[in-house]
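yo

u said u wanted the structure for the complex thing, so here. seqs first:
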Amino acid sequence: MEKNTSAGKIPLIQLKDIYKIYQMGDEEVRASDGISLTIEKGEFVAIVGKSGSGKSTLMNIIGALDVPTEGEYLLDGQDVSDMTDNQLAQIRNTMIGFVFQQYNLLPKLNLLENVELPLLYAGMDPWDRRERAMESLERVGLKEKWRNFPKQLSGGQQQRVSIARALAGNPSLILADEPTGALDSKTGREVLDFLKKLNREGNTIVMITHDSSIALEAERVVRIIDGRINFDGDVKEYAAII
Amino acid sequence: MLQSFKMALKSIWGNKMRSFLTMLGIIIGVASVIILVSIVNGYMSYMTESFASMGVNQITVNYRSLPSRTIDVEEFYEFYEENQDLFQGMTPSVSVSATVKHGSDTMDATTVGGYSEDQLSIKGYELSCGRNLLYSDMASRQKVAVVGAYVASELFGSPEKALGEKIKLNGDNYTVVGVVEQQTESAADFDDGCTDDFVWIPYSRAAKIARNAVISNYTFTSYDINDTDACTAALEEFLYSKMKNDDLYSVTAMSSLMDTLNDQIAMMSMMLGGIAGISLLVAGVGVMNIMLVSVTERTREIGIRKALGAKKRVILQQFVIEAAVTSTIGGLAGILLGSLASVGIGMLMGIDAPPTVSAVLVSFSVSVGIGLVFGYMPASRAAGLNPIDALRSE
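structre next:
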């Protein structure tokens, strides 16, 4: 794999012995039970696992939405594992673009305003913000509809808007949580193709899914079972074992 | 900051119904405080004015003579003369039960009384024509009369025509020497038994008709309403020195009645103020309620915003500004509504009830303050939400 040969460079994601332990009454739940994982810049990784496997916990940690109970997480060399809420907000804002299963667009804002949100929180001035958001909408082919509200669009279009929002801040990592979960197979196909295209353009993509057939669209697959990594390898090897 | 402000406005506009309900609480709270305070104030000044026109500087004396102990009119006059610095006027007051007649016309309801020449100034009336009673009329027990405007117009047609005419009281003829200006304002009230339906004759004459050797009622006036306490004390001392028994006389100052009235009004306004305060508090609880609902309803939105990098402070700002803007707009609308309503109700009640500055300021600042405080609590809860939990909520 030619993309993984950049040995001298800092990996984008470095997880070292990550534990996330929840106390449920007397019971201890290990949602992450010693996970170590390295993802280089430019990779397209699928994290696959059944519900309750701990893949969502892993996504929250990678997405700087949550901090691990134990272990070290370096995002582009920065230690994220013990940051404060405000520092995490800053990291999410500048380094990570989220694409959610439910799109998570704000219904009272039009498309442009939705795409502008992360730029607004980054403190960008209104004119630059607007320009960047428009460029981003153009990339997903919805520039003409910028005045529309999310409800006026189809599911596939809404997901494209949420991708545009994820791209707007020019993040180091695009984190997609079940990006096709709410879509029919045809529009799901389109979204996947679009993610692949973004990857070819150099974006690092981490996709979370429960569906092995969707995981096959990535280049590398990491399978989580009971909070541990059960498989980590090239998509061809993964295709062979399922 | 400016962004939070814009976002708050957008959110208020985006949730018109919810924002309006929040404002409604504030509007009702502010308006009711303004209306209550203004009406009570207006009523209070109306009452004070009408009492003042009845003569707040009057002190009435009433005593009962014993065969062994009595005070005659001359002694009262001596006392009055010795205390010229305290008293402005004094008149004995003798009521006469007599029917007023002129030719075949009879007036049954007319009040007839005997007074000194000071009666006119004590009442605060002016003559429309003729002359007042004179000291010489008292001394010589003249059969002269000063009559009210109603008597003059009923018996003679007009004040001018009444002058020099005779009226009959218990068979004696009295010459009308003066007519008092009309006191009743509306034509409907200008009727039998009204303020203008009276006849004044010299007290010495009246005492003779009533066959009273002793005159037991007097009215004094003080120069200033603030002197009434000193006047009352002087009168009581004088009466005690003569009668040696304080059960035999009473001294009543109109101003003390006024004090009682003022006390009652003050209590009433405090009570109403309390009620208004409670309604403001209820409005505040309403704001808090709506804000809490709004936070719960918007948990997902808060989650999205936080996931996209909104810091705690920014979320807090957005919600607090929203609460502040909502309660400010509500407060302003409440002031407008309250002012209009209090002027309107005042007009209906026939009193002047302009909204008071203090009521406007207090109710506005309290309502905005309550809005901010009660808006802050759910806002800080919203800002503290964990983005994962917030995103997971439906």
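The first strand of chain B starts at residue 58 and ends at 63. Chain B is about 60% helix and 15% strand.
cya
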